């Protein structure tokens, strides 16, 4: 019977694999980073560490070359580095600065749940807020961010004003600044959209679960309240439940609306078939007044002005 080792050797020689393998090893061992690593850790490595770690050394050099050529790598965004593991050669992957920056940005974005909000909302900051004619609102927003402490209650803001004056942008600026400075988790609900979605949730019996999750958010913002189609069920069993919980637990809450608080009270008082639901509306408004103070924002339509500046 032929010896397996002789057959294997003959096969490798026929296909020049020994020569290829030796060239690979030579290339790996000549790599400056590999040489520096071996010199620096010579006393820590086992006598057969290089033989046993040949595959790791090759992986290191190969991945490093791919990075230099901007080719796809085994771990995109990570840079390979050699380490000593139990007296043998091993490889680990450390995130590159770009990857770290991207991960940090993603973590920051995750703190502000604003899936249904305008695109510029995500980039809003108090530093970039156009304060012309909006000084009072900006000062109040800055004061809130400055005083905010997790677990401590302070009144939020009820921002009223015409369409396009910067109410939603200011909500986003507060949320983004608190995320960046204190890792605060904020949920922003576009009320007209939310009212439709929560009504659809009746079909799968998920209304209560969604309400319970929403009412516990550290910082909650209702955008365009009063812009939804009036519904006694939404007012009492959804909005009322959330606001009651947040009032009891002293959780900061913000609002924006085209309606002033007195106008919103009239809107909330509309019941079925034209009946007057003032008592129920007053309960809602009492909670809103407890949770937030009204600030009216004036000034030109920011959206129209932005379009005109681009023309």
TrEMBL record:
Descriptive protein name: Primosomal protein DnaI
Transmembrane segments: none
Primosomal DnaI N-terminal domain segment(s): 1-93
InterPro entries for the chain: DnaA_dom, DnaI_N, P-loop_NTPase
Pfam families: Bac_DnaA, DnaI_N
Species: Schleiferilactobacillus shenzhenensis LY-73
Biological-process GO terms, alphabetical: DNA replication
Residue ranges occupied by any Chromosomal replication initiator protein DnaA ATPAse domain in the UniProt entry: 133-225
SUPFAM superfamilies named among the record's database cross-references: P-loop containing nucleoside triphosphate hydrolases
